[in-house]
């Protein structure tokens, strides 16, 4: 077995490890036994301490599909503000440790043991991760650490290197040895690896490295810097993939997916979905696309959502048209919008829970098979 999740065989996975921030993984298992909360994802012999946030996956069509974060998946949680005062300078480790305690994450402050801030610091209420000095990252043990990642060099054999896109710094690898030798912070041909993506598909492991920095051609590097100096807002005329880490009302707090993009994390980003009247809440960890309206860096907006095949594509709440829509309620353990084919439990006359399958009304057979709930609604608020 190349990968397992709490002992269950993993059929496919995408594990994204950034140089800074929280690693995330999308996993599909062969088991119909549901998992939740703290789990251990083992990839090529290396265990990763992960957490499946509420609503970020479950069982469908006899297989488990989950999205999970390294550590406790709590750095996006809201924590209260607090004042700190010390004439010698407030220790950064004290502020970070308090934030970790409030949100429930594990932390190692060895990298900032000697770092002192000003004599009077106000930690404003907000996301717990905003209290952390950068750079920081969550390792495979689920522990948050500070400072740059350990350095090293990636050396590939001719058979391992599948493709190297020099323009974008993307290296595709068919690893002949352990994938653990590919780490953010390492270098490849003079470029620093900012993101590592490990993919398992059809019982085959592949690694994609996102590298930035130096180039073999000084003229190209000089031209790139010249373009950036002449047009510093150029990168805000593109769309970027972000991850939802928390909510601020109906707005989203987001973490950039690819560190290589050099885009910042964003807070309180409004949602401008492509459907008029739509209002939704997606599970934490879901991927969204962010665009900057008119190329203005002060006007980010979420313009689209996750891939339909991903674990984060099913919203926790979806409202279409308005509050007069038909509401569907069912005691699903994961608490999310229902799909045709999902099984829900409803009590019989004696209060005994009976499983039912949701079937579109238009597909109602003349003689239904096992108990089913037939649904037909033109406007639905789930």
CATH architecture of the domain at 235-317: Beta Barrel
- The DSSP helix count reads 2
Distance between the termini: 39 Å
Largest sheet: 6 strands, antiparallel, barrel
CATH class of the domain at 235-317: Mainly Beta
* Number of β-strand runs: 31
Secondary-structure-based class equals mainly beta
Q: What Rg do the Cα atoms give?
A: 23 Å
Percentage of residues assigned to helices: under 10%
The residue ranges in which pLDDT falls below 50 over 5 or more consecutive positions are: 324-334, 373-382
Quote the CATH topology of the domain at 235-317: OB fold (Dihydrolipoamide Acetyltransferase, E2P)
Which term fits the overall shape?
Answer: globular
Q: Strand sequence of the main sheet, in spatial order?
A: 1-2-3-7-5-4
| Strand percent estimate | 35-45%
Q: Could you report the average pLDDT, rounded to the nearest whole number?
A: 84
Q: Would you give an account of this structure?
A:
The protein contains two helices and 31 strands. With about 375 residues, the chain is mainly beta. Among the domains are: about 70 residues, no CATH class; about 80 residues, OB fold (Dihydrolipoamide Acetyltransferase, E2P); about 60 residues, no CATH class. The longest helix is centred in the middle third of the chain and has 13 residues.
